[in-house]
């Protein structure tokens, strides 16, 4: 049964994403000859003889080796696209400490990514070297070992320029992969406005080229430094394995004077720009195609389409990208399409149940309740940090929230959600009360301190703490901590205390509060769409809902939104939480995931106002708790 | 077609228009109580006078070139300052005019560059003349206010849901008046200079966007706060290189996005204000965007350019259609409440054009759906009224135009011909009839106090008994003039608007329009 469901979902993913990936690859391959032509033109630049330059470049373009290079690079683009498609994420993973970042870099998956990109980079550099011609073209060049001019024996020597090119290509590929990871470039940001793909591409193209040029400049500079120090190693290795001599007449490149060759620098830079532009174009196309809207039917027209219709997809547990696309579609239909809204409000034919609306509203509400609970847990962690001698019993969440019932599940949630691994990071290792705590509350939180990829889990505290966790949770008041347990705790605290005084360790372990907050809201885009979709649908229901299906869920919706509003308000009052979004740089690298929480706050308020504006005084008839009623009244008077 | 000759004669001097009642404009002395018990409706609205001398002159830092005492800064400092103030040309000018020794060759070279720059910019300016204006002149030229540079009130905006309005004043401050509270917050910010427009965020309690010379400021005001001077920390600064001065703002009616436009920038910016991200909507041609109007149903946006063409963007996929005008640039425009009709005026012509759009269904992605040509619905050319005390000449080009939320009244500021002495700037009000054909009917002229000329007009977004027009006069007075009538349609933004009326008006759209042009 489960296998069948998984198979269905894979089929759905293939159906929705497959052709998009194909189109993205096709477009990036189609643009490859254009990039190649530009590269050939620029690499053979002769400013003093423009006509000659143009005619030479044109002749070069039609030669067989350029065409072969284009074919080879198409394969490279294909591989890059496969990597893009394998590594993309709609929810960014944000490393909360430096150690976590290092952990990500040496993760096997990332190592494969880096090695593959280095190899691809070398291939592109080889193509670039072949197309540049001149002294870069071949690895082995004939040379004469001249003892005397007469018995000059033609021999093969190593062409260091070619080697420099290849290595610089590999270096660029590796840098690309590293920056891809560090800048979270696998994150798919959804655009704030819908636009046609061509326009989106055109808008990003200047940025892309500028970014590639700058990036390539830095890479070449760094590579020159690296080559200056370590260049002799690959040179010796290649020359011995391939039995090539080193031309003593030529100037060696791993010296200062050798590297100060302007033409070499220009060509290496141009090769880097070429590499980055073609790869970024593939990446950009993938991004544009993957985040394009997909229209899911609300009501299946045929029986076999049942799995693809919106309510069904929202309620099943599809791959995240499908869920995102479905929520985006929900937001769009609720805002722009009266016809499809009508389908949402319709009743099922035999039976007369509002299945569509029930499914959609249930999923949106469960998403929002989830977020509420997560935020409550995080606030509780932050609050406990401030008050040292807190008792477990005092740790209470506001009674009317649905999250209160699930308070005991919170530790589990913390463990299960990867994005949240570092949420307890607000617990600062260096805070003054750290050594002397015995409270089970802190104990319970202990293991979470070490979850973000930390190597210290190996020291054993991790294994012991799991039973502790359950002990603390099952009977937090009744069960007295056993002796061994206390002793272990003491030891653990001592170790932590000892470690926290070491500067180097602190450097790696200190958690950035901003990063932990970003991690909590990393999937907030879903919630924003759920909010917008729900509020638009509810607002439209005032005039369009003939059967009153929305009215039955209105109290639940209002309750959820108001509770979330309270929790979000409280979140923004926490210390460490900046109230303003950081400046976005306007570069190619998208940092929109850093500001999702502000977008969530704004759209939550707008959603509430949208409902209160349309319903007005009628909302007084809706059953909500008195506290929420007061809150609603404030919204009705525009005083929130 | 409606013309000014059909209008009832303007009220005699000394009388002030009080309200519209029983299809007629009533006049009287200022402050006279209204004839019926409607007085209570207006009692809460703050009518006020902001005289010019009460406001301090704009206190702005002098440019680095004219300090209080004659004191020469170091050359690099002056160069930096010139770069900040005047860009590349300013920098070159500063270096060329520098008195320092030992820069002779550099000066000679740079003066050549400067000459080339000037020549290029004059070439550019001859194609797009507005680019050679200074930014203050540019704002004055493209602002909706009649006399932006000289009058004490520079911009005005009603809150879309409550009785609260914001006024931008000559001294670069913005004041917020609320009918239900006595505190009057006065907003000041270092970057808030030369305010050209203010706009409240819809579906929100108190977020105000202010278009300034160098940026857009978004003020987050706490509606329950009693503070009269909110700190500048409450303001978000939205700036983008090359996007200044900002002359027009428009919020999406869904409250999600903010559009900003500058006559210098060919792109208009779509801001997601909460995250400060922006998307450029590039459309070359026209040389910039001067005026924005988002249709109340949220489906379309009018964007006027400084040249003789304007665009209508469709707000889902953001594609646009352009309409070239015959004579001049589009000065102002306004949308019908259901977004199906656009009225606009062109600089230098004294007529109102109407452009109708096919009904927006949301499923036709990326189509604006406008009709091919605009039709003339009103002729506002100069007309002479014979009055007992002499003759009055009224008519000319339209400065700004607003359509009330019920869709039944249209108020227009008609600017007299500046060369003629006799003509005056007046507010003319039209009634609108939607069936059987779209038609403008005369309602009357509004008269303020003696020697007061209208400066800005705006309709209250949710007045219950008809429509309420707020007029800012050149004397600094802000007065509210109610129009009492029974509307067949409830204001768009308020609860309980009925869908039946929308369908009724949609049938009107199928009717052929006037064929004359």
From TrEMBL, chain A:
InterPro entries: Nucleoporin_prot_Ndc1/Nup (IPR019049)
Compartment(s) where it occurs, according to its Swiss-Prot or TrEMBL record: Nucleus membrane; Nucleus, Nuclear pore complex
Segment forming the signal sequence: none
Protein role: Component of the nuclear pore complex (NPC), which plays a key role in de novo assembly and insertion of NPC in the nuclear envelope. Required for NPC and nuclear envelope assembly, possibly by forming a link between the nuclear envelope membrane and soluble nucleoporins, thereby anchoring the NPC in the membrane.
Membrane topology: Multi-pass membrane protein
Protein origin, superkingdom: Eukaryota
GO cellular component, one term: nuclear membrane
Taxonomic source organism: Phasianus colchicus
Main location (coarse class): nucleus
PANTHER family reported for this sequence: NUCLEOPORIN NDC1
Family: Belongs to the NDC1 family.
Protein name per Swiss-Prot or TrEMBL: Nucleoporin NDC1
Swiss-Prot/TrEMBL keywords: Membrane, mRNA transport, Nuclear pore complex, Nucleus, Protein transport, Translocation, Transmembrane, Transmembrane helix, Transport
Membrane spanning stretches: 21-45, 65-91, 111-131, 161-182, 207-230, 264-286
Lineage: Eukaryota, Metazoa, Chordata, Craniata, Vertebrata
One GO BP annotation of this record: mRNA transport
GO molecular function list: protein-macromolecule adaptor activity
From TrEMBL, chain B:
Residues annotated as domain Aladin seven-bladed propeller: 135-483
A single GO cellular-component term on record: nuclear pore
InterPro entries attached to this UniProt entry: Aladin (IPR045139), Beta-prop_Aladin (IPR057403), WD40/YVTN_repeat-like_dom_sf (IPR015943), WD40_repeat_dom_sf (IPR036322), WD40_rpt (IPR001680)
Pfam families: Beta-prop_Aladin
Superkingdom classification of source: Eukaryota
GO biological process terms, semicolon-separated: nucleocytoplasmic transport
Protein name: Aladin WD repeat nucleoporin
Protein source organism: Phasianus colchicus
């Amino acid at each position: 049964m489960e296998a069948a469901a998984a198979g269905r979902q894979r089929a759905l993913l293939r159906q929705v994403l497959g052709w998009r990936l194909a189109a993205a690859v096709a477009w990036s391959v189609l643009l490859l000859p254009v990039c190649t032509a530009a590269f050939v033109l620029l690499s053979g630049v002769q400013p003093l003889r423009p006509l000659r330059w143009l005619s030479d470049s044109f002749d070069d373009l039609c030669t067989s080796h350029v065409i072969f290079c284009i074919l080879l690079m198409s394969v490279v683009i294909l591989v890059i696209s496969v990597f893009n498609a394998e590594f993309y994420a709609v929810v960014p993973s944000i490393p909360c400490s430096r150690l976590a970042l290092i952990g990500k870099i040496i993760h096997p998956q990332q190592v494969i990514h880096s090695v593959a990109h280095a190899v691809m980079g070398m291939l592109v550099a080889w193509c670039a070297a072949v197309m540049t011609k001149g002294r870069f073209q071949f690895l082995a060049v004939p040379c004469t070992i001249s003892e005397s001019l007469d018995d000059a024996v033609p021999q093969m020597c190593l062409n260091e320029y070619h080697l420099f090119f290849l290595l610089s290509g590999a270096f660029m590929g590796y840098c690309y992969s590293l920056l891809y990871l560090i800048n979270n470039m696998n994150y798919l940001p959804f655009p704030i406005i819908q636009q046609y793909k061509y326009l989106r591409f055109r808008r990003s193209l200047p940025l892309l080229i500028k970014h590639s040029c700058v990036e390539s400049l830095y890479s070449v500079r760094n590579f020159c430094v690296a080559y200056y120090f370590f260049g002799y190693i690959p040179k010796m290795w290649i020359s011995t394995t391939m039995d090539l001599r080193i031309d003593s007449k030529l100037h060696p490149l791993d010296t200062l004077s050798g590297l100060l060759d302007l033409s070499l620098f220009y060509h290496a830079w141009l090769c880097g720009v070429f590499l980055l532009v073609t790869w970024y174009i593939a990446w950009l196309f993938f991004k544009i195609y993957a985040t394009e809207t997909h229209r899911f039917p609300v009501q299946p027209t045929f029986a076999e389409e049942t799995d693809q219709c919106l309510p069904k997809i929202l309620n099943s547990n599809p791959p995240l990208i499908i869920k995102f696309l479905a929520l985006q579609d929900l937001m769009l239909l609720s805002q722009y399409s009266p016809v499809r809204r009508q389908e949402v409000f319709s009743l099922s034919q035999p039976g007369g149940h509002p299945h569509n609306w029930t499914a959609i509203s249930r999923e949106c509400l469960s998403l929002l309740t989830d977020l509420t609970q997560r935020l409550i847990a995080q606030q509780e962690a932050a609050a406990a940090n401030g008050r040292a001698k807190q008792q477990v019993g005092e740790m209470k969440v506001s009674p009317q929230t649905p999250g209160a019932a699930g308070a005991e599940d919170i530790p589990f949630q913390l463990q299960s959600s990867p994005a949240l691994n570092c949420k307890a990071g607000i617990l600062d290792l260096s805070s003054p009360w750290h050594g002397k705590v015995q409270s089970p509350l802190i104990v319970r939180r202990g293991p979470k301190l070490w979850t973000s990829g930390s190597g210290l889990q190996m020291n054993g505290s991790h294994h012991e703490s799991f039973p502790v966790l359950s002990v603390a949770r099952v009977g937090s008041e009744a069960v007295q901590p056993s002796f061994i347990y206390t002793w272990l705790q003491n030891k653990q605290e001592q170790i932590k205390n000892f470690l926290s005084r070491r500067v180097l360790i602190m450097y790696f372990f200190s958690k950035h509060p901003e990063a932990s907050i970003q991690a909590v809201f990393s999937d907030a885009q879903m919630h924003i769409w759920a909010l917008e979709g729900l509020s638009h649908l509810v607002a439209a229901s005032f005039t369009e809902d003939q059967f009153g299906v929305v009215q039955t869920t209105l109290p639940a919706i209002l309750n959820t939104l108001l509770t979330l509003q309270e929790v979000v308000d409280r979140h923004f009052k926490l210390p460490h939480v900046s109230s303003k979004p950081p400046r976005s740089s306007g570069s190619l690298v998208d940092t929109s995931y850093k500001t999702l929480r502000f977008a969530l706050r704004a759209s939550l308020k707008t959603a509430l106002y949208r409902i209160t504006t349309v319903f007005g005084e009628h909302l007084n008839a809706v059953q909500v708790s008195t506290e929420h009623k007061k809150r609603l009244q404030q919204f009705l008077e525009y005083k929130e | 077609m409606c013309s000014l000759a059909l209008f009832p004669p303007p009220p005699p001097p000394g009388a002030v228009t009080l309200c519209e009642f029983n299809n007629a404009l009533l006049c009287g002395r200022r402050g006279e109580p209204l004839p019926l018990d409607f007085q209570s409706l207006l009692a809460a609205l703050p009518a006020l006078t902001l005289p010019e001398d009460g406001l301090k002159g704009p206190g702005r830092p002098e440019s680095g070139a004219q300090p209080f005492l004659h004191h020469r800064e170091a050359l690099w400092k002056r160069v930096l300052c010139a770069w900040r103030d005047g860009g590349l040309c300013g920098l070159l000018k500063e270096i060329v005019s520098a008195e320092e020794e030992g820069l002779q060759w550099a000066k000679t070279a740079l003066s050549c560059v400067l000459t080339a720059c000037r020549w290029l910019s004059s070439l550019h300016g001859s194609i797009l003349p507005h680019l050679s204006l200074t930014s203050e002149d540019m704002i004055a030229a493209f602002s909706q206010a009649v006399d932006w540079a000289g009058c004490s009130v520079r911009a005005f905006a009603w809150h879309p849901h409550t009785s609260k309005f914001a006024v931008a004043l000559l001294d670069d401050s913005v004041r917020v008046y609320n009918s239900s509270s006595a505190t009057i917050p006065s907003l000041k910010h270092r970057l808030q200079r030369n305010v050209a427009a203010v706009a409240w965020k819809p579906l929100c309690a108190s977020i105000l966007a202010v278009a300034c010379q160098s940026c857009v400021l978004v003020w987050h005001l706490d509606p329950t706060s009693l503070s009269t001077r909110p700190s500048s920390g409450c303001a978000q600064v939205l700036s983008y290189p090359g996007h200044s001065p900002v002359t027009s703002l428009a919020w999406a009616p869904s409250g999600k996005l903010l559009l900003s436009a500058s006559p210098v920038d060919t792109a208009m910016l779509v801001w997601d204000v909460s995250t400060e991200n922006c998307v450029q909507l590039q459309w070359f041609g026209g040389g910039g965007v001067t005026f924005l109007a988002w249709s109340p149903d949220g489906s379309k946006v009018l964007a006027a350019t400084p040249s003789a063409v304007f665009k209508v963007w469709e707000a889902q996929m953001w594609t646009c259609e352009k309409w070239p005008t015959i004579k001049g640039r589009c000065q102002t425009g306004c949308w019908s409440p259901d977004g199906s009709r656009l009225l606009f005026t062109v600089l230098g012509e004294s007529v109102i054009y109407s452009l109708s759009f096919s009904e927006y269904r949301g499923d036709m992605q990326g189509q604006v759906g406008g009709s091919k040509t605009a039709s003339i619905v009103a002729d506002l050319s100069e007309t002479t009224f014979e009055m007992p005390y002499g003759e009055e000449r009224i008519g000319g080009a339209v400065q700004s135009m607003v359509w009330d939320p019920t869709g039944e009244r249209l108020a227009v500021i008609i600017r007299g011909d500046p060369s003629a002495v006799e003509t005056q700037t007046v507010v003319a009000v039209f009634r609108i009839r939607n069936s059987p054909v779209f038609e403008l009917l005369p309602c009357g002229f509004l008269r303020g106090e003696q020697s007061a000329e209208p400066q800005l007009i705006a309709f209250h977004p949710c007045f219950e008994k008809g429509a309420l027009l707020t007029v800012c006069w050149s004397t600094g007075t802000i007065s509210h003039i109610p129009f009492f009538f029974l509307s067949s349609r409830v204001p768009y933004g308020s609860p309980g608007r009925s869908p039946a009326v929308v369908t009724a008006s949609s049938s009107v759209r199928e009717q052929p329009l006037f064929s004359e042009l």
